[in-house]
């Protein structure tokens, strides 16, 4: 692609951003669509997020992705916030609007699309969700709005899980999130669950770490989905498989959150063929 005076720019703001695989997604899509567009990561120093957003608007960037630690912090600097992102309290995609940016959350729809490609159901399911941080809060909301029957939210400190449960239940106007301490997993109903691992435990290089290291827990899991994609197989996934379950990592979530952002910026629809090509490229990077 020739970079010239008509080249549009998109990018990623966060700290750090050096490890990101997002340029693989967006620059490959630009090439396949024939769009005159480049995507680059922009590290933003603490305390300078507002300047970064204002500068991106002044430079007429087409759009931005937002990663840790700014997904919540970015909201006050936006002209508009999509209803889903507002309910979750996190924004990961900025789309240009007059006078600034509108914030969206494509992470959760990306997770949902990823699950659908693996025939993993949420509607009417009873789900175990590990962790009560920002990612797990968003997953809890997704499960609630997609019709999960019950979500058992397990966290090291039950008080934090209680807070998330109250917020989500109030937002969806039904009791669907049930907080528990991690240590109380033995009191879960005697049945099989979909379990979603929503913490950073097990992320490379700490590949031998896991939130729960007890086979009795994994005997309750028919399917495990880890939001982590590096390493390719986390210890959580290994334990799920060792106890007879199916396990998946978060690479397709990364793929589809990026695809949805690209669709918002360029008003296009990405085909399954394009998605499959990019997934292969992402897999080669791990």
Entry summary:
By secondary structure, this protein is of the alpha/beta class. The chain is built from 10 helices and 12 strands.
Account of the 3D structure:
- The chain has helices at residues 22-33, 49-58, 83-88, 107-117, 134-145, 158-172, 215-218, 235-242, 251-266, 272-285; strands spanning 8-14, 37-43, 63-66, 80-81, 93-97, 100-104, 126-130, 150-155, 177-181, 193-197, 221-226, 246-248.
- By secondary structure, the chain is an alpha/beta fold.
- The strands form two sheets. The chain has a six-stranded mixed beta sheet, with helices on both faces. Strands 9-8-7-10-11-12 form a six-stranded parallel beta sheet, sandwiched between helices.
- The protein is globular, with a radius of gyration of 19 Å.
- The model has no long low-confidence stretch (mean pLDDT 97).
List keywords for this structure.
286 residues; 12 strands; alpha/beta
Query: Residue-averaged pLDDT, rounded?
Result: 97
State the oligomer: single chain
Distance between the termini: 25 Å
Rg over C-alpha atoms, rounded to the nearest angstrom: 19 Å
| Lateral strand order in the biggest sheet | 2-1-3-5-6-4
- Name the overall outline: globular
Structural class: alpha/beta
Helix/strand order, N-terminal first: EHEHEEHEEHEHEHEEHEHEHH
Number of helices: 10
Q: How much strand?
A: 15-25%
Helix content: 25-40%
Number of strands: 12
As residue ranges, the low-confidence spans are none
């Amino acid at each position: 692609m020739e970079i010239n005076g008509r080249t549009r720019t998109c990018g990623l703001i966060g700290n750090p951003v050096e490890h990101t695989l997002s340029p693989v997604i967006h620059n490959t899509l630009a090439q396949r669509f024939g769009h005159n567009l480049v995507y680059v990561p922009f590290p933003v120093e603490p305390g300078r997020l507002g300047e970064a957003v204002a500068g991106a608007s002044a430079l007429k960037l087409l759009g931005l992705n937002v990663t840790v630690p700014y997904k919540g912090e970015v909201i006050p600097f936006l002209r508009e916030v999509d209803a889903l992102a507002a309910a979750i309290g996190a924004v990961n995609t900025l789309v240009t609007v007059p006078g600034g940016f509108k914030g969206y959350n494509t992470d959760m729809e990306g997770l949902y699309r990823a699950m659908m490609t693996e025939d993993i159901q949420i509607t009417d399911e009873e789900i175990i969700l590990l962790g009560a941080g920002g990612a797990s809060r968003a997953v809890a909301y997704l499960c609630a709005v997609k019709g999960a029957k019950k979500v058992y939210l397990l966290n090291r400190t039950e008080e934090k899980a209680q807070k998330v449960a109250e917020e989500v239940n109030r937002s969806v106007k039904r009791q669907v999130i049930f907080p528990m301490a991690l240590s109380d997993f033995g009191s879960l109903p005697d049945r099989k669950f979909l379990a979603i691992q929503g913490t950073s435990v097990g992320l490379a290089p700490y590949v031998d770490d896991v939130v729960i290291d007890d086979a009795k827990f994994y005997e309750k899991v028919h399917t495990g989905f880890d939001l982590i994609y590096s390493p390719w197989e986390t210890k959580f996934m290994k334990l799920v498989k060792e106890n007879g379950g199916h396990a998946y990592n978060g690479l397709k979530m990364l793929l589809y959150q990026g695809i949805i952002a690209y669709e918002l910026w360029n008003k296009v629809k990405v085909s399954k063929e394009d998605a499959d090509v990019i997934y292969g490229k992402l897999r080669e990077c791990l």
